[in-house]
Amino acid sequence: MKYFARPLLYIAIGNGVFALSGYAIHFFLGRYLGPSLYGVYGVIIALMTTVNIILTTGIPNALSKYVTENPGIKWMALKRAIILQLSFSLAVGLIYFFCADLIALALNDHTLAKYIRLSALIFPAYSLYSLFSGFYNGLHLFDRQSYLLSVYSLSKALLVIVLVMLIKVYGAIMGFIIAPIVALLFVARIKTVDMAKTSIKSVDTEKILKFAIPMTIFSVVSMLIISIDLFMIKALLGQDRLVGFYTAASVISKTPNVILSALTIVSFPIVVHANRKGNRLGLKKTIKDSIILSTICILVVSLPIFIFSGQIITASYSSLYQEAAPILAILTVGVGFFSLFEVLSAILNALGHPKTPMYIGLFALLPAILLNYFLIPKFSLSGAALSTAISSFVVMAMALYKVLKLTYTQKP
Fold first, then answer.
1. What is the pLDDT of residue 196?
2. Per-residue DSSP letters for 350-402?
3. Distances (CA, A) of 344 to 7, 54, 62, 203, 352
């Protein structure tokens, strides 16, 4: 496991800053805004994050894989990726902006439309920020990737907390919009001279898109599996206070996922490299180590949250959120399964099977929606949490089966 040590340390630092700043934002807003307004914030951020996934996983991860395999043309690949990413982000942002009323209608609350339109401004800058993160990842420059993430996270925390005190929910959204711009100004040192002189003709754009499209679909679908519960609570129950409780439980339950994302980020290029070398035994060991480390991390983090859910939710958000304690316990189990699913999906992507996680997610999405639809009216927030736990276990089991099949039964 020694090859994971230094890269994992760098990414763990960046993810640690990201996690702590994220918790600072949520805990402050939960107390400052109260359950109802915090519920509105939770829905808008969940929507924004789901759409952002379209821009932040496909092309950035495809670029990471491409420059890992073709380091000699890294600037050409980056130039082509910037063109693709900006074009795509502008198109997505416009669609999201003009569909604000329809989205608000689907969530049974027309007052959300104004917040949705404002949040559309985040997409261009954040998509470029994600692109450089993927670029550094592909070159194994994990220290720069960690620095980029840290600057973004700290900027976001400061901006959101200051602006929310001035203009409430609008301020929180503005903080998310400005933060990636700050990060790019600080650390994305674009070698404009090098890129200006390079031609993008030698870059296999089709190869980048062929890898990016299924990854993007997978990311959106997997995000919906873990977030559809919040949207359906809003649509079916309609009480912002309940949405606020569920948002609070959801934030804390995702702790294993946030911590494990460091290992996911590091595993991807390492598995790509091991697979490219053709060393079957080395590849098996790398994958095995990744799965073992992931499982240990999930258990170490999830068990205390499950056992002390009541104390944790009260200490984090105040006694106003005590009703969220049993929800947190159930969600923690589900997010544990989902976290392992994301690691397994990264392994499948690195092995050159990006369509497999996509198909798994698509297969599980409809059952996840149906579970929420039937269980939420009957069991309220507990029904939503249970739906997420069941769906997460199903996708994790399917991904684990596929990874083991590819690793241990496929001939070299």
1. 47
2. HTT-THHHHHHHHHHHHHHHHHHHHHHHHHTHHHHHHHHHHHHHHHHHHHHHH
3. 19, 20, 17, 29, 13
Q: Distance between CA 325 and CA 101 in Å, rounded? A: 33
Could you tell me which residue, 308 or 280, shows the higher pLDDT? 308
> Of the candidates 385, 390, 400, which has an alpha carbon nearest to the alpha carbon of residue 340?
400
CB 77 within 8 A of CB 203: yes
Q: Taking Cα atoms as reference points, which of 51, 31, 49, 29 lies closest to residue 41?
A: 29
For CA atoms 45, 47, 53, 56, the dihedral sign is negative
CA distance 19 to 13: 10
* Separation CA 1–CA 3 (nearest Å): 6
147: Cβ–Cβ under 8 A, 6 or more apart, which residues? 14, 187
CA-closest candidate to residue 185, choices 123, 132, 118: 132
| C-alpha to C-alpha distance for 344 and 357, rounded to whole angstroms | 9
Q: What is the mean pLDDT of residues 338-367?
A: 88
- What pTM was computed for the model? 0.86
* The token pair that represents 392 in the structure block: 């997460």
Q: What is the DSSP letter of 147?
A: H
pLDDT in tens, 189-219: 555 444 545 544 556 677 777 777 887 888 8
Q: What is the pLDDT of residues 286-344, one digit of tens each?
A: 888 888 888 998 999 999 999 999 999 999 999 999 999 999 999 999 999 999 998 89
What tokens were used for 118? Answer: 């404002």
Q: Are 215 and 58 in contact (CB under 8 A)?
A: yes
Residue 193: predicted pLDDT: 42
